């Protein structure tokens, strides 16, 4: 029997005395796009980081592809993120000293591919996301939108089953943000990749197949 | 309302004192390093102030008038090593402070105002350390002097006639350090003023290539070619030292003109060391580019690109270590020379070289501490980007290996160069052979004895320094586990 691709059950998490997640449950099917919306401090980023296996919840279970991942060690979760999950943040967070092509090739190099093979595979992703002309540029020579597209290429290059995006357009103007979002969702739909996206922008969240709202660490609604 | 066009120093001091726990740590470490500098500088002043009424001391380096300038020079050199450590401490917490400085810029501060605030921060921290150093030195001087006194032998010199000196070895109470010498008032004033001013000047100079904008304060280095001219300076300095004794004999300069020769050697040595330190940036950049273009190993790729993008970081990290390695090479060369020149009975030089080696070991320790501070600071500074990379699946060990390689790669080449530069300089200045006469005056045989090159000890010094840096950099990479944590991602903005 196959369940949802990503599933979080009754997650609890606190930063000191402040509760970030209060019994939150969420799931996302393969190929589905899920928007997680809420105000700042509502717990959407904490939920996203927990289901991506980046943070460990204090209580509850996180399942990915029928495998419980919240109990895995740091090394195994790191390996999982490298092979099966893609993560995108608000600021791209590319390695400042590497070129765009090297940044995209990095996850493949980490998987043991040779330099030539990794860069050969990375090139088409830059092209697909419209930043092939920036292949030799360092991140500080690119615009915010270009850097974010390179970050998307880096997330997609391993052909993950799911992409976790935390405010992926939060640092961009509306027009550039919309283009980056189109690129993210377009490529994800073409590849059948699930996308879990935390955003405070309801307008952006409407592009998702399904939207859940959060407040004070709990789900308060869904569409 | 309008005021003067630039920030007053008073306002700069007030703004410099704002900060978080990291800023407090920076001030504490900067102050601590200033205490060390103060103690060593005071020791240099006390050595300079030794009179016939003081002593005797356990080491003839302090007892003999002719040896004291060398001790003072060594202490001053040690002060400069400590000043670099102090400057490295003064950069701790840079990124947090940079965000605050960017906010000042947004509020209307000019780039020169920012430089002034940074200099004021360094001045204040080092002033507090200097004052603390002066107070503790004065308070501990007498009890420490008693503690470091005991029975021992010392050498006395008595003038006989106009050009003869009688040297006697006497047993009695000796002191290890010249703590019986009254501290000259001028020493206190100079120390109190010079150290904070020097640190502020270094902090001011460190703002070179730093762009202070309203949105960020960033180092302007990525992608730019490192300055190649220092390599010429290095070649001129080492070349001059290598050919010094030959040039001296060709020009017919006698050994009596020692002050002029000492000045020439000093200038050439300075050129060589400055050239090597700045040249390290060029070397780091070339090696970084070479490695990054060819490797498919992620940690090596990251290290290579970081070296190529920020070549001056490497020379800053390794500045003290390479300087100490050069001096160590010079001492090794000098040791071999003295072993050939001095007679078997004259064992004074063995004691002197032993003292110098202890000083060098301490200097290596300080240099290693500097590498630790700078590498650790680099990890803490990039903790958010490291956290994000870990979140995307980059293993911590890859990042740790990258940082380790970044610290080690330039030294693979530069440490042997530094030690070799010191050895060839010593051989150039002192000579590579000595003529010894045997037999009676009527039947004298002159034998030219070559001064051996200290290959083994030189290699041993290089390997030991590599190992020290390897261990220190490995310890610094452990900060990745502590500093780069997913919780950093929640505060990314």
Automatic annotation (TrEMBL), chain A:
Keywords: ATP-binding, Nucleotide-binding, Transport. Residues 6-223 form the ABC transporter domain. SMART domains: AAA. CDD domains: ABC_MJ0796_LolCDE_FtsE. The keyword Nucleotide-binding applies. It holds the Pfam family ABC_tran. SUPFAM superfamilies: P-loop containing nucleoside triphosphate hydrolases (SSF52540). GO terms for molecular function: ATP binding. The keyword Nucleotide-binding applies. Belongs to the ABC transporter superfamily. PANTHER family: IMPORT ATP-BINDING PROTEIN, LIPOPROTEIN-RELEASING SYSTEM ATP-BINDING PROTEIN LOLD. This is ABC transporter ATP-binding protein.
């Amino acid at each position: 029997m196959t369940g949802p691709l990503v599933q979080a059950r009754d997650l609890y998490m606190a930063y000191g005395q402040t509760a970030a997640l209060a019994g939150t449950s969420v799931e996302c099917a393969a190929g589905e796009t899920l928007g997680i919306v809420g105000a700042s401090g509502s717990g959407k980023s904490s939920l996203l980081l927990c289901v991506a296996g980046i943070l460990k919840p204090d209580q509850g279970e996180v399942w990915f592809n029928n495998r419980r991942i919240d109990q895995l060690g740091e090394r195994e979760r790191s390996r999982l993120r490298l092979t099966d999950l893609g993560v995108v943040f608000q600021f791209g967070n590319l390695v400042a000293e590497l070129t765009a092509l090297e940044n995209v090739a990095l996850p493949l190099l980490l998987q043991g591919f040779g330099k030539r093979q990794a860069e050969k595979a990375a090139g088409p992703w830059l092209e697909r996301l419209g930043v092939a002309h920036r292949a030799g540029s360092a991140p500080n020579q690119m615009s915010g939108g270009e850097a974010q597209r390179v970050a998307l290429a880096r997330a997609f290059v391993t052909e993950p089953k799911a992409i976790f995006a935390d405010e992926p357009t939060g640092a961009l103007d509306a027009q550039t943000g919309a283009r980056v979002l189109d690129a993210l969702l377009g490529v994800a739909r073409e590849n059948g990749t699930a996308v879990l996206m935390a955003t405070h922008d309801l307008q952006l969240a409407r592009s998702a197949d399904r939207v859940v709202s959060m407040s004070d660490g709990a789900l308060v609604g869904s569409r | 309302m309008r005021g003067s066009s630039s920030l007053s120093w008073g306002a700069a001091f007030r703004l410099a004192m704002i900060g978080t726990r990291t800023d407090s740590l920076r001030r504490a470490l900067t102050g601590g390093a200033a205490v060390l500098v103060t103690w060593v500088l005071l020791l240099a002043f006390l050595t300079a102030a030794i009179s016939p009424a003081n002593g005797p001391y356990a080491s003839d380096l302090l007892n003999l008038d002719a040896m004291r300038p060398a001790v003072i020079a060594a202490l001053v050199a040690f002060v400069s090593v400590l000043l670099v450590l102090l400057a490295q401490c003064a950069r701790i917490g840079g990124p947090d402070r940079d965000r605050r400085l960017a906010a000042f810029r947004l509020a209307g501060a000019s780039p020169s105002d920012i430089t002034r605030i940074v200099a004021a921060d360094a001045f204040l921290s080092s002033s507090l350390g200097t004052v603390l150093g002066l107070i503790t030195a004065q308070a501990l001087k007498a009890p420490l002097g008693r503690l470091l006194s005991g029975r021992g032998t010392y050498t006395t010199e008595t003038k006989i006639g106009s050009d003869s000196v009688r040297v006697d070895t006497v047993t009695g109470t000796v002191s290890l350090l010249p703590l019986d010498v009254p501290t000259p008032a001028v020493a206190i004033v100079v120390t109190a003023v010079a150290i904070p001013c020097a640190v502020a000047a270094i902090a001011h100079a460190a703002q070179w290539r730093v762009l202070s904008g309203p949105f960020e304060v960033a180092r302007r280095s990525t992608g730019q070619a490192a300055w190649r001219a220092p390599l010429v300076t290095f070649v001129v300095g080492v070349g001059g030292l290598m050919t010094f004794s030959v040039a001296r004999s060709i020009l017919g300069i006698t050994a009596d003109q020692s002050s002029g020769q000492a000045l020439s050697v000093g200038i050439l040595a300075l050129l060589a060391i400055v050239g090597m330190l700045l040249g390290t940036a060029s070397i780091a950049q070339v090696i970084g580019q070479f490695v990054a273009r060819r490797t498919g190993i992620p940690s090596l790729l990251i290290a290579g690109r970081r070296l190529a993008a920020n070549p001056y970081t490497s020379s800053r990290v390794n500045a003290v270590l390479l300087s100490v390695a050069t001096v160590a090479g010079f001492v090794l060369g000098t040791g071999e020379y003295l072993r050939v020149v001095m007679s078997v009975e004259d064992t004074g030089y063995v004691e002197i070289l032993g003292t110098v080696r202890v000083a060098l070991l301490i200097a290596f320790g300080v240099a290693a501490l500097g590498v630790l501070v700078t590498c650790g600071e680099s990890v803490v500074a990039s903790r958010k980007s490291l956290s994000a990379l870990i979140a995307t699946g980059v293993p911590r060990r890859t990042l740790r290996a990258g940082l380790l390689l970044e610290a080690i790669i330039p030294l693979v080449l530069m440490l042997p160069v530094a030690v070799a530069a010191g050895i060839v300089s010593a051989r150039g200045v002192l000579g590579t052979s000595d003529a010894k006469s045997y037999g009676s005056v009527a039947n004298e045989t002159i034998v030219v004895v070559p001064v051996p090159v200290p290959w083994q000890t030189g290699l041993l010094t290089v390997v030991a320094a590599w190992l020290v840096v390897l261990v220190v950099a490995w310890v610094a990479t452990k900060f990745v586990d502590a500093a780069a944590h997913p919780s950093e991602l929640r505060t990314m903005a």
